[in-house]
Amino acid sequence: MPDQPHANVIQELLGELHASFSGVREGRVADYIPELAKACPDDFGIVIATSGGRIYEIGDTRKEFTIQSISKPFIYALALKTLSFDFMASKIDVEPSGEAFNAISLDPDSGKPRNPMINAGAIAASAQICDADPSGAVDLLLDYFAELAGRRLSIHEAVYRSEKETGHRNRAIGHLLRNFNIIESDPEPALDLYFRQCAIGVTCRDLAVMAATLACQGRNPFTGGQPLSHDITVRVLALMGTCGMYDFAGQWLHDVGIPAKSGVAGGVLAVIPGRLGIATYSPPLDNFGNSVRGVAVCRQLSAGVGLSLFNQYFQADATIRRSYHGSQRKSRRWRSERELEILAPHRDEVRIIHVQGVLDFGGIEQLAAELVRLSGDVRVLILDLAHVTECPMESSGLLDRQLCALEDQGVEILLSRAGRLPLVTRSDWTISDRIDAYAHLDSALEAAENLLLSWYAPVVDAENGAADGLTEQGVLAALSEEHRRILVDRMVRRSFAAGDVVIRRGDPGDELFLVRSGSFDIALDIRTGDGLSHSTRLATFGPGLCFGEIGFVAQTPRTADITATQPGACWVLHRDAFEELSASHPDVVIALLKALTCDIGAKLSQTSVQLTLMEHY
User: What is d(CA 443, CA 26) in angstroms, rounded to the nearest whole number?
Assistant: First the structure.
């Protein structure tokens, strides 16, 4: 199969959102700042940046615009970082104002702005930074934003001049703050810094990285830098949740439930703590000064895939528990030498991925990212879901689509231990109709090996062997033709139906079985931590393999049950015939014991390797 990128359902979701809202024509581009009025109303970009350092984007995500009020939470964070919590609390409150972004919303007694997300609070925060470092404030600002975005940003000079020339209301707010001694020096340098911070040029991708940095408790997941501390990030996210969307903040938190901040240039930044950052860019604004398309995208993400903070599921660990190649774990079905030779060069066409935790949007995103990285050589995917605790209905459709898209690209998908996964039925398809599910991981591993054998091995009818029925039997391949002929005279052929018990635990070890056709399972009852006894398959034997040899050679009782899982037949050597053969043809017995010793050694060797690998996989 040619190496090609696999479809990613998260990227497809962004494509659907972009297509759904591109035609929205409501809203108007901000025109109270002349430079902003030049924006193209058709510009539209969406970006998701994850805590794992992955980017999904569509549309005008690399087009630069100015950050405007989206700078406010970051400026407040910088003020907290530069000064202290207590000092900033003496200058700015953290209460929702319920008023427009440019309202002169000050406490009538103290003169403190209601919160840092309105213009008055942002100007007050800029003033504290400016007073702390009057000559280096602009450089400090740009260095800080470079850490947040993961690249150097610059100030859009034309927008800066336009804002400064028309910002009379903001200038009035600055002087009013000076009157209350919130700004303790000339307000003009602070206002200049405020106009510059609003005019920083960003792209939608930059905003998503900055949002992901907040999602990661102040650590940039793309650079590894830590521009903000955990405690500052928590405070900033709380303010974004309660105040970030101005006089629309209460409705936003109720309807969308995601900490967010908007800017009048058309940007919206939203944060799912611990998981991801979302950014949109679309200049037309609603009456609250928020991007119409940006609000619509966030609403849809919240409702459609369960991103609301108030609709999250507990997940302690990473979604991908383990991921490894087929050569690193084999099934407990013992294979003939011929089958092993066929499988050996193709085992890595099988991939095993163990999933755990809650498969909500974030969990499915992690799984989708892992599946997209699958090599084009992978033809069989085993998805083990034993440790999945929940798959919410809102996100299960994404899982359905991801798996079915992968199958459409030629990958056979086998689910194991999927009992806790609700497979959602769609109008025309469902996972359960298209993908095989197995109760045990080992059964899925065996099925994957069988698929490889069906693709790469010629069909062989076990009943069309040589006349004596033993010349093609692998375990006795080391014996001469004469020795095999002598053996066949002492062995009897016994047929079994599916479900027949061939050996019971406690039976005397007086028979040796050589499989001619069919399939036989050895099972053992194991008591687990829950106090219950479970029947566990230890091995499966097919044509060319023998079983019962340890009890037969050691003359000890059987320690496990062996059952026919498919109709078949075995050549059986009873101990009486073996004793007679020992007396009449000791050379045949010696050859047989050598063959059995080699077979037991090979099985023990393979078992040891599998047990060692289990420590790591």
Answer: 56
Q: Distance between CA 51 and CA 138 in Å, rounded?
A: 29
Sequence spans of domains, the chain: 9-304, 320-456, 462-614
> CATH fold of 462-614, please?
Jelly Rolls (2.60.120)
464 is in an annotated binding site: no
For residue range 141-195, what is the model confidence (pLDDT) as tens digits? Answer: 999 999 999 999 999 999 999 999 999 999 999 999 999 999 999 999 999 999 9
Rounded Cα distance between 140 and 129, Å, is: 9
CATH for 9-304, among 2.60.120.830, 1.20.120.160, 3.40.710.10, 3.10.580.10? 3.40.710.10
Q: Is 91 a catalytic residue?
A: no
Buried b (16+ CB within 10 A) or exposed e, 128-164: bbbbeeeeebbebbbebbbbbbbeebebbeebbebbb
pLDDT band at 536 (very low <50, low <70, confident <90, very high): confident
The CATH homologous superfamily of the domain defined by 320-456? STAS domain (3.30.750.24)
Annotated catalytic residue within 29, 47, 264, 589? 264
Active site residue 261: no
56 appears as a binding residue in the annotation: no
User: 119 among the known binding-site residues?
Assistant: yes
Instruction: Write down the catalytic residue from 76, 144, 246, 438.
Output: 246
Find the catalytic residue in 76, 144, 194, 281. Answer: 194
Active site residue 94: no
- Options 29, 47, 56, 69, the catalytic residue: 69
pLDDT digits (tens, 9 = 90+) for 105-117: 787 888 899 999 9
pLDDT at 4: 60
